[in-house]
């Protein structure tokens, strides 16, 4: 029992440290007490210390979801992003490039503009902000200068939580931004929580540690993904739904987005 109490105390302290930063408090009722750390499923099986966790979330969290291309953060995390922004938290989608490499039937010279507009529309639907790292689609570069630039972009956001691609994804741009995010996290002394997400047809193998119930926001998640018209969402969105349904079976929800917390990351307050 003593060990269990000690564990709870440690969890509580780390959660408080994860959120007790310099930004101003907002009214606690702005936030839904379900801003519980780890996945609720896991947490409730181990503890009843929810009020302390909810109190620790009584200010807007800053969250950055990084993605290789416009549409990736939406594909893997739109439900979770919606849950966060509904609670009053601040979410930015940080795209490595503007999708210059493909935009359906339009000429390649138009792709950057078309896909930037699609990303902005998706972000509007999610009540999030779009940020672009301005690398080039399919030609991601990782070198000392890009590590610095990317770390600067993330640092400017002062994030509590960063989501990024699984580093073994099949697309090289996904792997690139995953490395850039990891490096920024290390450079920041692991100051923010670092989680990985999955996208259809790219992410294998993936063994999630945490789940977010997205059942109630499914229609808005779909709308954000379908904002990327040039990416022919009819082809890939159903595959992502298959994933969230199967994750939901595991987590006990109709649909769930699944994440893997970096083993050395502090736990995040997930919605
Ligand atoms: Zn991608």
How many strands, which pairing sense, and closed or not: the largest β-sheet? 7 strands, mixed
Instruction: Catalogue the ligands.
Output: zinc ion
Residue runs with pLDDT of under 50 for 5 or more positions = 1-55
Number of domains: 1
CATH superfamily: LmbE-like
Using the 3D structure, state the CATH architecture: 3-Layer(aba) Sandwich
Distance between the termini: 29 Å
Helix count, DSSP H or I runs of 4 or more residues: 9
Order of neighbouring strands in the sheet with most strands: 4-3-2-5-6-8-7
How is this structure best described in words?
With 271 residues, this protein is an alpha/beta fold. It has a single domain, classed as Rossmann fold (3-Layer(aba) Sandwich), CATH 3.40.50. Helix content is 46%, strand content 17%. It is built from 9 helices and 9 strands. The chain has helices spanning 2-19, 40-46, 50-56, 72-86, 108-126, 144-157, 172-187, 218-226, 233-251, and strands at residues 36-37, 62-67, 90-97, 129-135, 161-165, 193-197, 210-213, 256-261, 269-270. The strands form 2 sheets. It has a 7-stranded mixed beta sheet, with helices on both faces. Strands 1-9 form a two-stranded antiparallel sheet. Helix 5 links the parallel strand 3 (90-97) and strand 4 (129-135). Helix 6 packs across helix 7. The longest helix has 19 residues, at 108-126. The radius of gyration is 18 Å and the shape is globular. Zinc ion (ZN) binds next to helix 7.
């Amino acid at each position: 029992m003593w060990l269990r109490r000690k564990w709870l105390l440690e969890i509580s302290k780390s959660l408080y440290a994860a959120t007790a930063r310099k930004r101003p408090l907002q009214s606690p009722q702005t936030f839904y007490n379900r801003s519980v750390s780890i996945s609720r499923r896991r947490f409730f099986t181990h503890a009843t210390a929810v009020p302390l966790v909810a109190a620790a979330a009584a200010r807007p969290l800053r969250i950055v979801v990084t993605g290789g291309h416009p549409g990736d953060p939406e594909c893997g995390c739109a439900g979770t992003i919606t849950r966060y922004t509904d609670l009053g938290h601040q979410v930015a989608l940080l795209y490595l490039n503007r999708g210059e490499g493909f935009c359906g039937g339009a000429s390649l010279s138009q792709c950057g503009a078309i896909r930037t507009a699609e990303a902005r529309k998706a972000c509007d639907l999610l009540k999030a902000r779009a940020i672009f790292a301005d690398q080039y689609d399919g030609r991601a570069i990782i070198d000392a200068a890009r590590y610095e630039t990317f770390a600067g972009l993330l640092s400017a956001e002062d994030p509590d939580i960063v989501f990024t691609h699984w580093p073994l994804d099949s697309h090289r741009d996904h792997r690139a931004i995953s490395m850039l995010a990891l490096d920024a996290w290390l450079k920041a002394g692991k100051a923010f929580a670092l989680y990985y997400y999955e996208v259809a047809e790219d992410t294998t193998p993936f063994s999630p540690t945490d789940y977010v119930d997205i059942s109630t926001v499914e229609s808005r998640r779909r709308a954000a993904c379908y904002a990327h018209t040039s990416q022919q969402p009819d082809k890939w969105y159903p595959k992502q739904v298959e994933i969230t349904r199967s994750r939901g079976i595991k987590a006990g929800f109709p649909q769930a987005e699944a994440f893997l917390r970096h083993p050395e990351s502090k736990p995040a307050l997930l919605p």
